[in-house]
Amino acid sequence: MGKMYLGIVLFAGPHVISALWPALRNRLSARLGENAFKGIFSLASLVGLALMIWGIWATRGTDSMVYVPVAGMKHVTMTLVLIGFVLIASNQGKGYIRRWLQHPFSIGIALWSIGHLLSNGRSAALWFFGTMLFLTLLDIGVNMARGEKAVFEPRAKRDGIAVVAGLVAFAIMMLLFHPYVIGVPIAG
Questions:
Q1: Is 122 helix (H, G, I), strand (E, B) or coil?
Q2: Which residues are bridge partners to 122 per DSSP?
Q3: Residue 176 has what DSSP assignment?
């Protein structure tokens, strides 16, 4: 679990600082230069995420159960993850989904996290998906408090692209990545 905790610090730390202390973020960016700051932020986040994934994978079957998931949550989880993938994909285009939700990427990650928390009670999963859920809720809350809104003329075509991209990503995750890379089959 040490890898998991270090990963959480490296991944969540920069995100929390950036969200809650924008003046500090701006000072660091000015001191280091914007590109160097973004590079360090991205590298810390990537290493942190890799350590978190490594931590959850390495403890599979050996970490403790924090709670027993309710039976039958598999389909609820799959539905939340599917919707989450569509929302994540809609963040890239200027469609009605993005304009209506304002934060589709964060909402999509939140749904993905909630789905996994509903169907997995292991301590490593709780730390991993709980961290992701916390960061997305923080992002949504901070941006709403700041009154930040994307303003653009939406196009329905962008929503169609987001739905197709979300469905393709979901199929790849469910049929290939989850069973063969993560080692947890979910189809069938």
A1: strand
A2: 65
A3: I
Within 8 A by CB and 6+ apart from 12, the residues are: 48, 131, 134, 135
Indicate the SS3 state at residue 65.
strand
Biggest distance spanned by C-alpha atoms of the chain? 53
Q: Where are the alpha helices (DSSP H) in 21-151?
A: 22-32, 34-58, 73-90, 96-101, 104-119, 123-146
Q: What is the pLDDT of residue 188?
A: 52
Residue in the structure block whose two tokens are 């304002």: 102
Q: Give percent of the chain with pLDDT exceeding 90.
A: 71
d(CA 56, CA 122): 9
Per-residue pLDDT for 10 more than 90? yes
Residue with tokens 């749904």: 111
Q: How far apart are CA 133 and CA 120, in angstroms?
A: 14
Cα(160)–Cα(108) distance, integer angstroms: 16
Residue 126, Cα to own-chain centre: how many angstroms?
14
Nearest 10 degrees: Cα torsion 147, 152, 157, 160: -10
How far apart, in whole angstroms, are the C-alpha atoms of residue 161 and residue 32? 38
User: Given phi > 0 = left and psi -120 to 50 = alpha, else beta, which region is 149?
Assistant: beta
β-partners of residue 65 are 122
